[in-house]
């Protein structure tokens, strides 16, 4: 068995989706608890949303548990645009696993994310000129991968790498534009290297190091059943565009009441939101919950608003059972799953790279989750009776 430690839950689901695509038995959990028969254990830690000290402690705890299980081949799934405590978590993990070199390949050709001459591009635009510059927690202040790594202790090699060259001690972030590039970098690995980065790089690591696992399988037919609640937890333009189209089609949009956007919690805001969402589900079968247009500015507001959203979602589901729960954004998704105490989740289906359906073991509910910056796939547009725009 091998293990993947992901710094948020949507990234963990993206890894599980890769395994589903290739027919590899996979387990998915919020802790190091493998399912019987799994070849890959995916652990969603949500360390990206934690304070740095807490994130490093959690990373070390999970790594120690994996080593006690005898699992030594470990991949660190980090954010594809390098948000979070990337360098610090990798150093903790490398120290625990006795690795001298870290091979970090965040690029993901599936989503138009590439690195050229050490500059990170999203569909041809430098990262700091995209909507990632407005991320409330880890804004992209630069497109240079060394800057984004925020590392001032160990050496950082980046830019053009030789296909036959040795990796240096410390961090290695090679230019990557294609899946073949990612496969080439996976070929540079040996026992001294800790691999990390995007789900696309993990896929190439599997192909290079475990080719016998890559069986592939036909996807199951998609079947959304019953009513649905979507939590639009991202400020990315993809999310805004989907919500706008859904509202035009008549889907009920319920925005967070302004009472909940104040620093001091007001339970009347939760009551009003729960009532509106519940009414929408009873009348129209599909509802979208979103943050609304008013901006918060108090300390730690992203985490606080996500917690309030999760509490409202849990209250709604107590009153009106929901069969299909669609979630976007790792921090929002994790907050909702924790508030609902969902426990074990079984990966069911990959709708597109990064968009995965999981069955809640102890609830009659299916979750469809994705990173906030990814677009919903054609299948979800069809489910909401919308026409997906051609990009």
Automatic annotation (TrEMBL):
<dbReference type="GO" id="GO:0016301">
    <property type="term" value="F:kinase activity"/>
</dbReference>
<feature type="domain" description="Four-carbon acid sugar kinase nucleotide binding">
    <location>
        <begin position="229"/>
        <end position="373"/>
    </location>
</feature>
<keyword id="KW-0808">Transferase</keyword>
<dbReference type="InterPro" id="IPR042213">
    <property type="entry name" value="NBD_C_sf"/>
</dbReference>
<keyword id="KW-0067">ATP-binding</keyword>
<dbReference type="InterPro" id="IPR037051">
    <property type="entry name" value="4-carb_acid_sugar_kinase_N_sf"/>
</dbReference>
<dbReference type="Pfam" id="PF07005">
    <property type="entry name" value="SBD_N"/>
</dbReference>
<dbReference type="InterPro" id="IPR010737">
    <property type="entry name" value="4-carb_acid_sugar_kinase_N"/>
</dbReference>
<keyword id="KW-0418">Kinase</keyword>
<comment type="similarity">
    <text>Belongs to the four-carbon acid sugar kinase family.</text>
</comment>
<protein>
    <submittedName>
        <fullName>Four-carbon acid sugar kinase family protein</fullName>
    </submittedName>
</protein>
<dbReference type="GO" id="GO:0005524">
    <property type="term" value="F:ATP binding"/>
</dbReference>
<keyword id="KW-0119">Carbohydrate metabolism</keyword>
<dbReference type="Pfam" id="PF17042">
    <property type="entry name" value="NBD_C"/>
</dbReference>
<keyword id="KW-0547">Nucleotide-binding</keyword>
<dbReference type="InterPro" id="IPR031475">
    <property type="entry name" value="NBD_C"/>
</dbReference>
<feature type="domain" description="Four-carbon acid sugar kinase N-terminal">
    <location>
        <begin position="2"/>
        <end position="188"/>
    </location>
</feature>
């Amino acid at each position: 068995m091998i293990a993947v430690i992901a710094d948020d839950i949507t990234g963990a689901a993206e890894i599980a989706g890769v395994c589903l695509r290739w027919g590899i038995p996979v387990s998915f959990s919020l802790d190091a608890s493998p399912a019987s028969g799994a070849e890959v254990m995916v652990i969603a830690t949500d360390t990206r949303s934690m304070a740095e000290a807490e994130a490093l402690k959690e990373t070390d705890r999970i790594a120690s548990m994996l080593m006690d299980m005898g699992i030594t081949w470990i991949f660190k799934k980090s954010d594809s645009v390098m948000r979070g405590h990337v360098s610090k978590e990798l150093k903790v993990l490398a120290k625990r696993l006795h690795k001298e070199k870290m091979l970090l390949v965040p690029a993901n050709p599936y989503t138009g994310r590439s690195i050229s001459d050490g500059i990170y591009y999203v569909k041809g635009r430098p990262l700091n000129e995209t909507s990632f510059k407005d991320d409330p927690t880890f804004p992209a202040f630069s497109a240079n991968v060394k800057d984004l790594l925020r590392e001032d202790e160990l050496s950082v090699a980046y830019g053009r790498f030789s296909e036959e060259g040795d990796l240096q001690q410390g961090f290695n972030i090679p230019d990557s534009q294609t899946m073949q590039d990612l496969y080439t970098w996976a070929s540079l690995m040996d026992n001294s290297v800790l691999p990390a980065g995007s789900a696309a790089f993990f896929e190439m690591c599997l192909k290079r190091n475990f080719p016998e696992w890559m069986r592939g399988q036909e996807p199951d037919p998609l079947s959304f059943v019953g009513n649905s609640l979507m939590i639009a937890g991202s400020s990315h333009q993809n999310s805004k565009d989907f919500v706008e189209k859904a509202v035009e089609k008549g889907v009920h949009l319920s925005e967070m009441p302004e009472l909940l956007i104040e620093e001091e919690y007001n339970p009347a805001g939760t009551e009003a939101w729960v009532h509106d969402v519940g009414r929408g589900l009873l009348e129209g079968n599909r509802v979208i919950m979103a943050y609304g247009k008013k901006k918060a500015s108090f300390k730690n507001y992203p985490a606080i608003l996500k917690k309030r959203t999760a509490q409202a979602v849990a209250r709604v589901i107590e009153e009106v059972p929901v069969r299909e729960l669609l979630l976007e954004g790792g921090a929002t998704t994790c907050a909702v799953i924790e508030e609902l105490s969902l426990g074990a989740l079984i990966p069911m289906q990959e709708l597109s790279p990064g968009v995965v359906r999981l069955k809640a073991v102890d609830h009659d509910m299916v979750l469809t989750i994705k990173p906030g910056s990814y677009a919903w796939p054609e299948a979800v547009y069809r489910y909401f009776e919308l026409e997906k725009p051609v990009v």
